[in-house]
Structures are given as structure tokens and as C-alpha cells.
Amino acid sequence: MTARDVRAAPMISSPLIAADCCLATDGGGAIVLTSLERARDLPRPPAVVLGYGESTTNTSMTSASDLLRPGSPDSGRRAFAMAALRPGDVDVAQLYDSFTVTVLLTLEGLGFRAPGAAASFIGDGRIRPGGDFALNTSGGGLPSHATVLLGADR
């Protein structure tokens, strides 16, 4: 898909076009945790959870008081404090990507970028394979062309 194709994608809900929206909608997620003692017997090395944070800002898009303020500033602050880490200490980020704007707001909310700076950061190709910031390395839910063109001039 070319940048022209992305720009020509149908409008879904202004300002979001079809290329800005997740292809599949999920209703939930789960993480299975066990003790470090138990994990040592498993076939793969364990990943140790250093910190976590949760935050809910609304129960639906229609009840959100501010669509541009996700829960990431609150949940990120708690997780980073618990882990005694800063955003600069993180090698890989796996962020929920329901819409292109969600990725931008979450990068900023977690402190990976200053407010308003995520689009240019992504537009510079830093999240592409070989870039200096590993983001959603599993591919995420957005169409791959949207992730690559997040910061493209529309």
C-alpha cells in the first residue's frame, strides 16, 4: 500500500480514516503469571515483571471526558516507579494500537516522547525494522501500512 492509497482510504470517523483503525477488535486480554521458583522449571527463561500499572479513563468512547488523555500517564507513572525505571531504560514497547492516534498518545503518555512529539518520532522511521525503538514487534493490530505511515504527511 502506498502513501497515496492510505490518504485515499475512506473516512471512518473524522479525522480517522480506515487505515488508522485496527483490523480486529479484541474484547480483552490475559497474562498468565507464576512464581519465579516455578518459572525456572519451564522450558524457556522467565521474564520477570518489575512493575505494572493500571488506569481506566472511561467505559466507552462516548463517556470519555477527554479522548486525548488516555490512562497511560497514570499507569505508566505507577509501573515505572514500581520497577525503579524510566522510559529511557526500556528496550521494547508493546502498546495497544486500536487506532494510530492511540499509539501516539500512549508513547507520549508513558514518557517515551514529549506531548506532541510522537508523530515526528515515528515519521522519522525509528519504529521500522532496524530502527532505534522496537515498538509492537509482533505486528500489533493496525494494518502494517498504518504503523509505518503513522507520522506521514496526510
Your description of this structure?
- This is Thiolase C-terminal domain-containing protein.
- Pfam families: Thiolase_C_1.
- Residues 53-147 form the Thiolase C-terminal domain.
- By secondary structure, the protein is mainly α.
- The chain has 6 helices and 4 strands; from the N terminus they run H-E-E-H-H-E-H-H-E-H.
- It has helices at 3-7, 36-39, 72-83, 100-109, 118-123, 144-148, and strands at residues 11-13, 16-17, 92-93, 134-135.
- Strand 1 (11-13) and strand 2 form a beta hairpin.
- Helix 3 (72-83) crosses helix 4.
- It is globular and about 55 Å long.
- 18% of the residues are buried.
- Mean pLDDT is 82; it is low at 145-154.
Give the secondary structure arrangement, pairings included:
Blueprint: H1 3-7, E1 11-13, E2 16-17, H2 36-39, H3 72-83, E3 92-93, H4 100-109, H5 118-123, E4 134-135, H6 144-148
Parallel strand pairs: 3-4
Antiparallel strand pairs: 1-2
